[in-house]
TrEMBL record, chains A, B:
Residues 39-320 form the Aminoacyl-transfer RNA synthetases class-II family profile domain. PANTHER family: MITOCHONDRIAL RIBOSOME PROTEIN L39/PROLYL-TRNA LIGASE FAMILY MEMBER, PROLINE--TRNA LIGASE. This is Proline--tRNA ligase. InterPro entries: aa-tRNA-synt_IIb (IPR002314), aa-tRNA-synth_II (IPR006195), aa-tRNA-synth_II/BPL/LPL (IPR045864), Anticodon-bd (IPR004154), Anticodon-bd_dom_sf (IPR036621), Pro-tRNA-ligase_IIa (IPR002316), Pro-tRNA_synthetase (IPR050062). PROSITE patterns: AA_TRNA_LIGASE_II (PS50862). It comes from Algimonas porphyrae. SUPFAM superfamilies: Class II aaRS ABD-related (SSF52954), Class II aaRS and biotin synthetases (SSF55681).
Amino acid sequence: MGKPAIRYSDLFTKTSMAAPQEENSANARLLVRAGYVSRVMAGVYAYLPLGKRVLDKIEAIIHDEMQAIGGHELLLPGLHPQENWKATGRWDKFDVLFKTHGEDGPEYALGPTHEEVIVPVVKSFVQSYRDLPFYTYQIQTKFRNELRPKSGLLRGREFRMKDLYSFHATQDDLDAYYEKALQAYINVFERCGIGSVTVPTIASGGTFSEWSHEFQTETAAGEDTVYYSAAKQMAVNDEVKDKVLAQEDWANETLETRKTIEVGNIFKLGTKFAEDFGVKFQDSDGNSIHPVIGCYGIGTTRLLGAIAEVCHDENGLIWPESIAPFDVHVAQVGKGDELAAFTETVLAQLKALDLDVLLDDGPGSFGSKMKDADLIGIPVRIVIGSRAVKANAVEVKRRTDKDAEMIALDALADYFRAG
Amino acid sequence: MGKPAIRYSDLFTKTSMAAPQEENSANARLLVRAGYVSRVMAGVYAYLPLGKRVLDKIEAIIHDEMQAIGGHELLLPGLHPQENWKATGRWDKFDVLFKTHGEDGPEYALGPTHEEVIVPVVKSFVQSYRDLPFYTYQIQTKFRNELRPKSGLLRGREFRMKDLYSFHATQDDLDAYYEKALQAYINVFERCGIGSVTVPTIASGGTFSEWSHEFQTETAAGEDTVYYSAAKQMAVNDEVKDKVLAQEDWANETLETRKTIEVGNIFKLGTKFAEDFGVKFQDSDGNSIHPVIGCYGIGTTRLLGAIAEVCHDENGLIWPESIAPFDVHVAQVGKGDELAAFTETVLAQLKALDLDVLLDDGPGSFGSKMKDADLIGIPVRIVIGSRAVKANAVEVKRRTDKDAEMIALDALADYFRAG
């Protein structure tokens, strides 16, 4: 048995048919118009009830996949001690770091990433090789002082992010876990409905290691360019293209150029942060050595924006079923006791099918309700009007279909069970 | 069917028998020692896997009660535009406001509360009396630049808080909703296991209205003093005591003085914030007027600290069942295939009972494992040693009991079903 339907009017948001002037990206224009988000200022959004529901579904998938690879959830703070960022040399070098003053003098960083907190936090627990490996993650709010926030939810000053950190006794152990994490990331994007357009992409490992991997989602509005090998099911990014193609096993690949958005990345950090904070353990031979660390990020609000960027048409959003805010959008057109009673009968059937329902029984016209339903983009729309009551049937349309069909009330369960 | 048991060693945290020197409160001393939280700096904590599980359970109860009074969840940002705080006159007056500079000049506030964001966010959606009332809430991270953070999790520079905002066409409608919210708060504290020591307390309404209500939890370490009337099941705080007792219906009350911690408060804000942001709607007579607003807060990390403050003894934490990180703590003492197989049998039974289990099968001694179990404070402890295998029974002890009892394996389900 599912939950009772939620009345659209209780969510307090409304759609807007006018495109917001300050938004230049499809994701923000649609998400603002449909009432999923509200722009608080450049690069900072509020996630309204519809948007929060989508974000929750995305994050539930990520929780599931992170726990499947042994991740245990924690929650690290947004306020970081200055000394931690000085210890890693990033206080002055990390170019989007927000800083704030405490009343009593000390400056804090607002966390744009959490190596500076997680590594000192685990320090007292890592004493022996028997304490390793372990994997811990959070989904939490990050701050980055972007000079020019842009592309709606894709590059903000404040965003939510899943960051997992893995701690290992040996490089081999990190290498093996990294492959598991890469597969978990493929699963996340597949389950969020953008698997077919998202590819792991070889990128630079920066100062930490030779390579890292990005996950790049193809879209016309993409700000990155990657080169995709269908044979390898792997892409390379611009930055490392020449270096990768110089390798023997990539030399003869046929590459397809794609415009993409980065939706995740995974990194081997080596021992840098363990060295900075003096984290050491005794290996099985009694030597005192540093653990090697991996980090694995997905911006969850960015992913929401990327999915909106990929999954829409000229009429509005088209959510993948797995992350849609509701399963069914029921629009009751008209009023009256008989109609309301019929709607209740339909809602009871949908509840028995464990479907989450958004009910629009407000005073709007047929036309405006259909426009709203297209804009909001819930996978299935059911229209209930006086015709429905007479026919003892409802008008059902998938968001991806062109035409609606009449489904008799006693065939509705089969319609949804058939999927 | 429940989830598989979680191995204590996978959580990566360890208990510590030494009291942390920098902590002067029972809640922080115990939560740090037991591995629930880690102090990042004064007033800022990391919530480790055990602590995150308790926080999740507390927040799930709050979600449930807020949704039961019509609340729909959203998520507002931590970064606030300076102009919003100037609009309410609180930019210079709110004395614990953290401020931070953007790269391109503007200053931001770090949200210590969210009237300055929610009111402008809803503005475009409130046009007619038909759009009211509505209720929306979030559970999110707040920042307050406390001069002297103290009392562990009770007064921090960063903390999580549930804040619900209600919007009404009339004062009467707000008044009626306020009573529902007050009852929902009583439910929250009851369900979190501190109902018997938590009382609604009349407090000042500040500049907004005559009265507000705090929820005050009795504890020896309380920093507040309230005066409780058993007949009214209501207390008054220090600030308004004289004014309340001057009222006829309080004049003859017998009052009991209690040391308490504030764990929640509810406020009628009137029209102040709607005026500041020019939020107006047309009433049924066509007049353009301001909605009246209520706000309702619970610090969820503070509540966790308060529960720890109330629910412990000299050996450690004693979690109420509803919010314990796990239902059962299984300590396997010793090693060997036979013992491990017996443990698996016990775990399978607990899983079938849908109980969440923490499994400590590490190398520790019986004594250290019992000390750990007391310190961590999970409601039921099961010890499995060689004696258990021979007897085909396990040693079971509730955290609140003095002595353990042997329960035959085939009676274990009944033990838990009896509750």
